[in-house]
Amino acid sequence: MALQARIEVEDVSVLFPLYHGSSRSLKKMVVAAASGRLGKDQQQRVVVRALQNVNLRLSSGDRLGLVGTNGAGKTTLLRVLAGVYEPVAGRLRVQGSLNALLDPSLGMNAELTGRENILLRGLYNGLPRSMLPRLEEDVAEFAGLADFIDLPVRIYSAGMVIRLGFALATAIRPQILLMDEWFLAGDAVFMEKARQRLEEMVRGAEILVLSTHQMSVVREWCTRVVWLEQGRVRADGAPEEVLPQYLGTPLEMA
Amino acid sequence: MSTAVTTLAPAASLDLKADMSVASRHSLAVDDLVRGFGLWRLAWTLGWLDIRLRYRGSMLGPFWLTISTGVMVGALGVLYSTLFKMDVASYLPFLALSQVLWGFLGALVSEACTSFTEAENVIRSVRMPFFVYSVRTLIRNIIVLAHNILVILVVFAWFRAWPGWDLLLAIPGMLIWIADALALTLLLGAFCARFRDIQPIVNSVMQIMFFVTPVIWKPEQLGAAGMAKLPLNPFFDLLEIVRGPLLDTGVSGMTWLGALGYSAALCSIAWAFFVRARGRITFWI
Ligand SMILES: Nc1ncnc2c1ncn2[C@@H]1O[C@H](COP(=O)(O)OP(=O)(O)OP(=O)(O)O)[C@@H](O)[C@H]1O
Ligand SMILES: [Mg+2]
């Protein structure tokens, strides 16, 4: 890895025009309306301002925790960093291989066996054929699903799906790792294993960005915290500074 | 007990701006195509999986399609050769070929509309070239076509209507089909993601085109005047550049001109739209 991982977010805004009627995004709309973030864009369409003028610079070694109330824009920011949502204003520059754990069942097909899903994920990540056996071995071992690995994912329990998803997502080592909150749902034994594996990933001076509502996770894993409120960065700094401020505000829909 | 984290993700970098120049939009779209081709093994696997899952638990799998196409061709063949008073030996090979090719075309156009929306979950959680979904849609339909070709083989064998080396003359036509199919999945895939009522419209249009295009009736039945106008119908041109060589009826210059002209138009429109829309598709699905 010649180049050091780096993320630059300059003045990025993301608007969601509400295209497809009310039913699909009604829930999101209600949350947004309650927070006064519904607006109009230049073409007079109704939009949700999910992120507004966000600035962020991350470099090798940063472990960033995103905190904020429901609908603050944490997942949206992770998706922007992953290059999924292209900004409607501002600029995003990312350098370094990136892996985003946004959806526990990304590309997983419930009808396929765990093993087949591992191979599918390898393909999604554009891995050469020669790497696939190693991936398979690593994921099967880490997920610890025993014989279930050869059964369809359809019959897994929710926790087992998460184990497999976590093992898959972390088997392919990126320079930049983005995680949404779902990955914290494993059982206690698994969480311990997960933490060890994550620390391994973060060690080689890579970037971690995770979004969570669990402050213990932030305190344990993060060296920096960004507090998002209504799509804006309200505070950015060390966990000891930002968390007390964040927890000091009464919990309400921001 | 620490597990070795082994596999390295391929290196990557990203530079996205709002208000991009036309040139940088173009280069992002080209990049999408190139990387999409690079992931052909993924597209291939996804295409196969679609078929496998569609026919999960069924004994004959996609061969059900072959059987239903076969039965339909047989029944229509007998019925229409009587109605149109045509020789079965010349009509059935025509019908089998036309029906199978049209089946491919119709399904492809219809599925092009959902090529992005059906991949909604993946599109929202990982940055992936959109072209992968186009190739997947194409591959899925080629697999179905490959199963239906059996019907053509049986009919051709029965009536000893082998095209011989003329088969090779159909190859340029097939290449044009592939290019058009990919262009169409990009265009309709993006357009139908934005406007959800396009797909039903597209399906009705295809239904009408099925009847106004010589699929179950032969072009000769129109008479000379009618035949001269046929190349105006893009579906006729496209069908004919593959069907003509295989039936040994030849392809007229007008038909080739039409096929190339319409294809060039389709590809340019699709590209222009895709270049503009690419960054917005994720917001539409
Ligand atoms: N696809 C979408 N269409 C419309 N609005 C959206 C969409 N996705 C997100 N939003 C809006 O963007 C805002 C931020 O949402 P986001 O999912 O990023 O919140 P979050 O901080 O992850 O919340 P949570 O803690 O509940 O996961 C919300 O107001 C939501 O209504
Ligand atoms: Mg979220």
UniProtKB/TrEMBL annotation, chain A:
> Can you name one GO molecular function term for this protein?
ATP hydrolysis activity
Give the record's GO CC terms: membrane
Keyword annotations for this protein, in alphabetical order, are: ATP-binding, Nucleotide-binding, Transport
Q: Does the keyword Transport apply?
A: yes
Q: Where does the ABC transporter domain start and stop, copy by copy?
A: 26-253
- Xref: InterPro entries: AAA+_ATPase, ABC_transporter-like_ATP-bd, ABC_transpr_TagH-like, Bact_Polysacc_Export_ATP-bd, P-loop_NTPase
Which Pfam families does the annotation name? ABC_tran (PF00005)
Q: Which family does it belong to?
A: Belongs to the ABC transporter superfamily.
Show the PANTHER family listed in the entry.
TEICHOIC ACIDS EXPORT ATP-BINDING PROTEIN TAGH (PTHR46743)
Put simply, this protein is called ABC transporter ATP-binding protein
Automatic annotation (TrEMBL), chain B:
Keywords of the record, alphabetical order, are:
Cell membrane, Membrane, Polysaccharide transport, Sugar transport, Transmembrane, Transmembrane helix, Transport
A GO cellular-component term linked to this record: plasma membrane
**Where in the cell does this protein reside?**
Cell membrane
Regarding the membrane, this protein is recorded as:
Multi-pass membrane protein
> Where does the ABC-2 type transporter transmembrane domain lie?
43-244
From the UniProt record, give one GO term of the biological process aspect.
lipopolysaccharide transport
Q: Which residues cross the membrane?
A: 63-83, 95-117, 138-161, 167-193, 200-217, 254-275
A GO molecular function term, named singly, is:
ABC-type transporter activity
| Listed InterPro entries | ABC2_TM
Which family does this protein fall into?
A: Belongs to the ABC-2 integral membrane protein family.
The protein's name is: ABC transporter
